[in-house]
Amino acid sequence: MAEKNAMIKIRQLKIAFGDKVVLNDLDLDVYEGETLAVIGPSGTGKSTVIKVLTGLLAPTSGSVVIDGQETSSYGEEEWDGLRSRMGVVFQYSALFDFLSVGENVAFGLRRHFKLSEEEIQKRVATLLDLVGMPNTQSLWPSELSGGMKKRVALSRALAMEPRIVLYDEPTSGLDPVMTMTISRLIRKTQQQLGLTSVLVTHDMDSAYFAADRIAMLDKGKIVQIGTPDEIRQSKNPVVYAFVHGLERKEEDVDGRK
After folding, report:
1. Alpha-carbon distance 52 to 56, whole Å?
2. Angle, in degrees to the nearest 10, between helices 117-130 and 146-158
3. CA 122 to CA 116: how far, in whole Å?
4. For 69-92, b where at least 16 C-beta lie within 10 A, e where not — what string?
5. CA angle, residues 200, 34, 219, in degrees to nearest 5
6. 8 A C-beta contact, residue 30 and residue 6
7. Handedness of CA 158, 129, 185, 31 (dihedral sign)
8. Max CA separation in the chain (angstroms)
9. Are 132 and 144 in contact (CB under 8 A)?
10. Do β-strands 35-39 and 213-218 pair in parallel, antiparallel, or remain unpaired?
11. DSSP one-letter code for 141
């Protein structure tokens, strides 16, 4: 069997703020073309992983390799070049209120590509159609529901034709129906575009549906990683408590019964 190519390779990553250690000797691979969900309790460092992968937070120590490039010592110019091949969907969509839907999606295209206006508009229309929002270019963010904003944010992230897409709690604040709509879009875009994705979420239905593998993060470390079925059927007390929404016993915090 051929060895899988790791698009993202994290080794012994430590993030600390003074005495507070957020990530502690974290090892994690994200394989090319897969969606990896990172789950875990609030405050355990899930979103910190996204900040490290986008260069918003420098490692205290350790190695972060993205698409074959060691990024630990990157400067802002080098990060800008790498970010041009990455898309990010933020928890609160982060649309520009002063731009229409079409101009939000076109924002990166205008900054980083030399395209004609016709080419830009065609690309925007294609992306909005992909996420089920055709003919909405002239709407404003204030006119959109939460789910619609998330879909526009996904279109904007895909506009740069990234190899990697990072999702930071993309279903937060959405009702169950819209949560599954976004989860289906994550799966659809991965399959149609061959993207490598990291999905940070606390929503297990979304993780089970959209992810190829799931990594459970607790106290700054990966306590288990596996397929959705393996995580669903886990006997690890920390993982079991989280995925089934159970209150954790104090003696289970370090993984011991």
Report:
1. 6
2. 130
3. 10
4. eebeebeeeeeeebbeebbbbbbe
5. 35
6. yes
7. negative
8. 63
9. no
10. parallel
11. G
As separate numbers, helices (DSSP H) first and strands (DSSP E) second, the chain gives 9, 10
Q: Which sign does the torsion angle of CA 218, 45, 69, 73 carry?
A: negative
- Listed in sequence order, the residues at least 6 apart from 33 whose beta carbon sits closer than 8 Å to its beta carbon are 7, 190, 194, 195, 196
Structure tokens at 45: 């460092």
28 neighbors 10 (Cβ within 8 angstroms) = yes
Angle between helices 176-193 and 146-158 (to 10 degrees): 10
Angle (CA) 197-75-8 rounded to 5° is: 25
133 close to 155: Cβ distance less than 8 angstroms: yes
Let me know: does 231 contact 239? Beta carbons within 8 Å.
yes
Residues in a beta bridge with 38: 200, 215
Instruction: Please give the backbone phi and psi of residue 131, each rounded to the nearest 5 degrees, phi first.
Output: -95, 15
Judge whether 164 and 65 are in contact, CB under 8 Å. no
pLDDT tens per residue across span 140-165: 999 998 888 888 988 888 888 888 99
pTM passes above 0.70: yes
> Over the stretch 155-214, which tens digit does the pLDDT of each residue have?
888 888 888 999 988 888 778 888 888 888 889 888 888 899 999 998 899 999 999 999
Q: Looking up tokens 């994550």, which residue turns up?
A: 186
